[in-house]
Amino acid sequence: MPARTGSGPSMPRRTLLRRLGLGGAAAAVAGGLGTSGCTLVARQVGDAGGGRQRGGSMVVAQVDDLNFATFRQQNTPNFSWQRLAFNTLTEYDHATLTPRPSLATDWEVRDAGRTIVFRLRDDVRFHSGRPFGPRDVVENIRWQASEEGAPGQLRSTAAAVTDASATGPAEVTLRLAHGVSNFFDLCEIMFIADHETFAEVQTGQQLNGTGPFVFEDYSPGVSLSFRRNPDYFKAGRPFLDEVEIRIVGEQQAIVAALQSGQTHLGFQLNGNHLHNVRADDRLAVHELDTNDYGHYVGCNINVEPLGDRRVRQAIAYAVDRDKLLRMVVDTVGRAASSPWTPSNPAYDRDAATRYHHDPDRARALLREAGVAGASLDLAIRSSEPGGDRSTAEVVQDGLRAVGLDVEIVVFQPADFQTRLGTANLPGLWVAGHGFGQLNPATLLNGAFPFNANANASNFVSERYQRLADRAWKATDEAEAAQVYADVTQLLLEEQFVIDLLSSSQSFVLSDSLRDINYTMFNNLDLDDAYLAEG
Known about the structure:
Blueprint: E1 3-5, E2 45-49, E3 52-55, E4 57-62, H1 82-85, E5 90-92, E6 99-101, E7 104-110, E8 115-120, H2 134-145, H3 155-159, E9 161-168, E10 171-176, H4 183-189, H5 198-201, E11 213-219, E12 223-228, E13 242-247, H6 251-259, E14 265-267, H7 271-278, E15 283-287, E16 293-299, H8 309-318, H9 321-327, E17 334-335, H10 349-352, H11 359-369, E18 375-380, H12 387-401, E19 405-410, H13 413-421, E20 428-433, H14 440-446, H15 462-473, H16 477-494, E21 497-503, E22 506-510, E23 513-514, E24 517-518, E25 524-525, E26 530-531
Parallel strand pairs: 4-13, 4-14, 18-19, 18-20
Antiparallel strand pairs: 1-19, 2-3, 5-6, 7-8, 8-10, 9-10, 11-12, 12-13, 14-22, 15-22, 16-20, 16-21, 17-21, 23-26, 24-25
Helix pairs in contact: 8-11, 14-15, 15-16
């Protein structure tokens, strides 16, 4: 049973970050996350040229255990390890969203997107020693399109490929049923695994990829370890010898490990802990420029009075977003009324600021709907201070101030996720969504809160389905711009997902780790990372 209780631009980075190689990436003190009497991890490093130093063991600390079953999805506990063991066909430039070569060296898009030809690197091997080739691309696309296991979030885009075949020893040709606007989003999220070990990837028994680090060992709930891949196709990379990911469970324990020099990088920290970290001159907070975390209130429209969109609009006006920005995310991000971030082609500044704190307008809408004084449950997945709990309390205060009787209901995380996935949460809930930073079709078809065909709010609209389909198939720029404007207007009017903040994930680092990177889906990239003497 759930527990009940009664109750703009992101922040400038510190000067400390400027000296690190990611235009703001910072670093961590070497160490082993610890128990009493532990010693710092030895940094046996040597000069690798260009100021970079070779060698050493890096430690990452995170709250949640890894989730191998969701390998084909974007899932926060997997941000730390997927890009260590695997590569993708292409990788986005963060500033322009232009795809860049990775396992594919170049490509051609023909016939209004109905034919795509990839030419592949011919010098890549999986960790097992088997050469990478066209068949691996073909089989990974089929796997991504499959509904077997936990399906990929861009399954529909992969399923649009009606034929995939090798057309040369290092070339693969894809034929699609129609052009799709988000094909390179698929390429960004689809890690290329050895097609002979798909089943083992989903259980964590084998992580046979082409990436810079080779899987060594996994202890459930404890740690995951990797060693340097000496045959990585990027010459001289990686610089680190080993990476260990430790599952810590408590955010405060991660902060303590960072402050005591026993880990290099920590993440999954909420605003309360980030605020404390900023006060420590040995540490720095790197806000990921993907800006892909949307804080929202969801509405189950099958629960009255949420079937009336005036009530949902009233909720959007009742919440004080500026208070959330200060209290919940420590000013990392901006207030938002739409799901799109500035990197998204659907982003519109006026739409992003449509809803603001206006209690009088909220009360008027509730009176117009005849539901002043209505009672609603507000579900969250954790009672830990900060994060969703703090968001829920600010939302609750705002709704009570306009006359709604709101009670916070705490579910266990697994129960919450099951109810979310089956559209069975009671009334309102607080959570986060991704995919606002890439092509609009990826959010409309891949993020369950917004999915036009089946979503967590039970919102069904033939017009919404048509617009989502048009956004997915639009390959003409003018046509795409119009459909993006139309779907944004629909989302603002219907408010079955009430966006509150556009924020980002943050890595906390100390001052020996340099040149980290990450993908547009937030996967940690350590190709160029190194430990500096200090």
